[in-house]
Amino acid sequence: MPPTLSDVRSAHKRIRPFIHRTPVLTCSAINGMVRARVFFKCENFQKVGAFKIRGATNAVQSLSDEAAARGVVTHSSGNHAAALALAAHRRGIPAYIVMPTNAPPNKREAVAGYGGRITFCEPTQAAREAACDELVRSTGATLVHPYDDDAVIAGQGTAALELLEEVPDLDAVLAPVGGGGLLSGTLIAAKGVRLDVRVIGCEPALADDAAASLREGRIVPARPPVTVADGLRTSLGSKTFPIIRELVETIALAEEGEILAALRLMLERMKVVVEPSSAVPLAVLLNRSLGLAGRRVGVIVSGGNLDVSRLFQSWGS
Amino acid sequence: MPPTLSDVRSAHKRIRPFIHRTPVLTCSAINGMVRARVFFKCENFQKVGAFKIRGATNAVQSLSDEAAARGVVTHSSGNHAAALALAAHRRGIPAYIVMPTNAPPNKREAVAGYGGRITFCEPTQAAREAACDELVRSTGATLVHPYDDDAVIAGQGTAALELLEEVPDLDAVLAPVGGGGLLSGTLIAAKGVRLDVRVIGCEPALADDAAASLREGRIVPARPPVTVADGLRTSLGSKTFPIIRELVETIALAEEGEILAALRLMLERMKVVVEPSSAVPLAVLLNRSLGLAGRRVGVIVSGGNLDVSRLFQSWGS
What we know:
Two copies of one chain form a homodimer.
Chain A: H1 5-15, E1 24-25, H2 28-34, E2 37-42, H3 52-62, H4 65-69, E3 72-75, H5 79-91, E4 95-100, H6 105-113, E5 117-121, H7 125-139, E6 142-143, H8 150-166, E7 172-176, H9 181-193, E8 198-204, H10 209-216, H11 240-247, E9 250-254, H12 256-270, H13 280-287, E10 296-301, H14 309-313
Helix pairs in contact in A: 1-3, 1-8, 3-5, 3-8, 5-6, 8-9, 9-11, 12-13
């Protein structure tokens, strides 16, 4: 049984003490360009800089004391690893994080900074899974998948729940889709609150595996990672695919140049630092026809982990 | 008579329909570095990207119908010009903006985009004032000074008023100081709400004219503009200086490298785009001893008009 609105509500009660209630921002200039009223739910301001802390915290806080004491484990080199490490730290339990030996130093430091115990492995899917299995066997820790996990999906849905609490009369909600944890949770929350809300997944055209999966009726694997929206390069999972297939209106695609232009708009006009994945819904709104003119549209801004170092290189600091 | 808390409250009622209620953000990483709890009032998300719309709107909305019909005038090449143009547009009256012929195109476009009527003049103070005087004479428009104006000062104070509504138990409030409109308004609002709140002005060491003015007991002119915090290069005015002298605890200084490091922290950790002037208070918190360890500190983040184009140049877009 997939999670329901009731699971999302329970998740929200559970995680509220551990997360930020992120603001909803609007921008007249962007409203004018999109010809709609857009409400951005800014998870870039969330702890660890992304919505991922919601699902990770819900998974960690849902464990029995006995299971929790043995810790949690995951393989990830991205935001989920840092989020799980922080969520475990807040419960005072160990987090075992499997990372490839080529993971960037800043990602390793983020995980270590939250007290995560890192196990390095060769940078292949098989090596990652073997290292995870070995950790589960030796420690008894619980595996928390980055997206294909009911507690994670319910946790991610709490962002849309808060957005709809604050702006109840939305006509549509747009969320980016990678592995589908955020989109699944958003669908369960939004369609649960009001069945007539349109929910649209947004995906880079260069990583259109979710759109292909819906078209073909099976999980189509992601192509080699090329899109600038590096958070959206993963394939759907066995739990997220059925939810998305049942509830989503469509998956809309954005080209790379459209994504970068939308990212720039968000930096320059909204004054928010977001990662490229978070600009995909705005890229869709600016370039695809979705019948949203004059409507009230919610956008889940997934995260803010953008490399801004180049800006400062040019300033010599 | 300088404005009082009651004037700030009246200003708030007057301008509320025309401005954003900006969010107050916190960041655990920054709290850890500063060893205090810092609450950032994010005026970078304000309309026109800065607190300036508060004062400009209060000035415009305070005019009688008869005076309003003749319009408003100012000389400015910065945020105040755009703010006054928008404020006038919202009341349906003309805004005459005197700009130097060398004003950057994006500033001109911002003013023109809000319907401001631009008069160009030679880039000297004398030419600006002469052009303003001529416009007042020929149109009967009311001059709205960027900071040395009671209605503007009261309007700028509404940011601190909102901050203290949201976080009532602040021990201190920090605001940047250039011409002193924001700091004066912040002092009147914060000290009016609770006399024991410490209010500290923050200034670049390279533009320390406000600190020098307090020391010497007279308005010391700003030195030639060299600080990266370009919003803080102006001198205090005859209305802002007495308010600041009477109420401020101190003016703390930040070095250029400290300002850039604080700006980078705000981009990378808080995920907000701010202009260098807005990073001066955090630079002070990180580098000066103000007896704020363990305290609750409010910071007015003045604006977000940063040139982010260089980030994108390096991405080739």
